[in-house]
Amino acid sequence: MAKMNASFLELKKSYLFIEIGKRIREYIASHPDNKIIRMGIGDVTQPLVPVVVEAMKKAADEMGVKETFHGYEDSGMGYDFLREAVSGYYKKNGVEISPDEILISDGAKSDCGNIGDIFDSSTVVLVTDPAYPVYVDSSVMGGKKVIYANSDESNGFAAMPDKNVHADMIWLCSPNNPTGSAYTKEQLKEWVDYAIENDAIIIYDSAYEAFISDPDIPRSIFAVPEARRCAVEICSLSKTAGFTGTRCGYTVIPKELMLKTPTGEDISFMQLWCRRQGSKFNGVSYPVQRAAEAVFSPEGQAQTKKVIESYMANAKVMAETFDSLGIKYTGGKNSPYIWFKCPFGMGSWEFFDKLLNEAEVVGTPGEGFGKNGDGWFRLTAFNTLENTKEAMERFKKLFK
Ligand code: PLP
Which residue puts its alpha carbon closest to atom 12 of ligand 1? Predict the structure, then answer.
């Protein structure tokens, strides 16, 4: 009988969203007429903006005409028009990235989950705790050792490197899911210095960069120039432009980024990743890449900015509520997430039940994201202003 990959036995049971779903269903069954406000799952709620829909329709029409039909894309790494648009976006944010350092993906999750393939199984992977679960799960599936850097109350849920600990691969996410914290340029520089000192590579997840409004918070790790020697950046249009169901993202790999061969020579990171992708990935559909291109057009930028501003208006209502109640939190400023300490010293699940049963608001217990999430809770701003205001009124009643 064929044997399973035994590393899968090391995975933590992923019961979080299943358990949340079960508790909500039970509550609805006994209160069928009540209005539950969902602020748990990190999916967007607003539709694609008009300029994106138009671009996708036009591209779909092109696919139906012999002269403009597109089959496999030659490289599978993304059409030039989109790589150039992404490069232009970086330039506008003050960072020079050449189009041939940009690879188009079907979203950040795939590249986050797969990039570990090109690292040796002896790689020591550093993950900040709490974290988006893919970093740990994909490392464990690949048989790699995972160590943690604590994000907690003492550092504003923005873990910093410990010079006495060695890592080969480092996962950073800023603005962070779940904590909403965002690194300053100085903090990122510390991580870059640590990575260079350790001959390590940072995988930087910037899926929420579009929510940054503070000019002191970089939108890219490449705002630190030395990061070109030690970092890959994975980004997504999911939250930027409502592409969670459309699927498109991009990964930046600087030309000078290297890994080591078993005999100690340098080998291009880009070359290895393209080899991996060439075998296992056939690219993103033409209509979706045209839709993504439209996100970076002036109209696309204006239209998506409005949507993000509407989510951030919700975040502001939430932050003001927590301020007025004196509840400690991170996020809500450069992030659609608010991460807060459960009131009255409650545990995350205990608080989940209280919020569901007494305020009919659903959130996410922090312990689902790592041990430092114990006693903490995540709410998202992906909702309507009306629902957010109502949820916060219920919150106030519960905790005043
Ligand atoms: N990275 C982070 C931090 C996320 O929160 C998410 C989705 O919620 C992703 C990556 C995956 O995004 P995508 O939809 O592009 O796969």
Answer: 108
Dihedral angle sign, alpha carbons of residues 225, 229, 231, 232: positive
pLDDT at 30: 93
How large is the angle between the packed helices 298-325 and 286-295, nearest 10 degrees? 70
Q: What is the DSSP letter of 46?
A: S
Is residue 132 in contact with ligand 1, taking CB distance under 6 Å?
Answer: yes
Which atom of ligand 1 approaches the CA of 237 most closely? 15
pLDDT digits (tens, 9 = 90+) for 159-201: 999 999 999 999 999 999 999 999 999 999 999 999 999 999 9
pLDDT of residue 399: 85
What distance in Å separates the CA atoms of residue 376 and residue 343, rounded to the nearest whole number?
9
| Å from CA of 55 to ligand 1 middle | 23
- Does ligand 1 have an atom closer than 6 angstroms to the CB of 111? no
Number of H helices, E strands in the chain: 12, 15
Its pTM surpasses 0.70: yes
Looking at ligand 1, which atom is closest to the CA of residue 110? Answer: 16
CA distance linking residue 352 with residue 361, whole number of Å = 9
Closest CA to 240 of 260, 219, 261, 271: 219
Q: What is the DSSP string of 186-205?
A: HHHHHHHHHHHHTT-EEEEE
Mark the ranges of the chain whose per-residue pLDDT is less than 50: none
User: Is the shortest distance between the CB of 378 and ligand 1 below 6 Å?
Assistant: no
Q: What single-letter DSSP state applies at residue 233?
A: E
| 8 Å CB contact between 338 and 329 | yes
Structure tokens at 266: 């340098």
The alpha carbon of 244 and the centre of ligand 1 are apart by a number of angstroms equal to 8
8 A C-beta contact, residue 92 and residue 305: no
How far is Cα 350 from Cα 11, in angstroms, rounded to an integer?
Answer: 25
Query: Which of 351, 353, 254, 385 lies closest to 23, judged by CA?
Result: 353
Closest atom, ligand 1, to C-alpha of 177: 3
How many Å apart are CA 250 and CA 231, to the nearest integer? Answer: 14
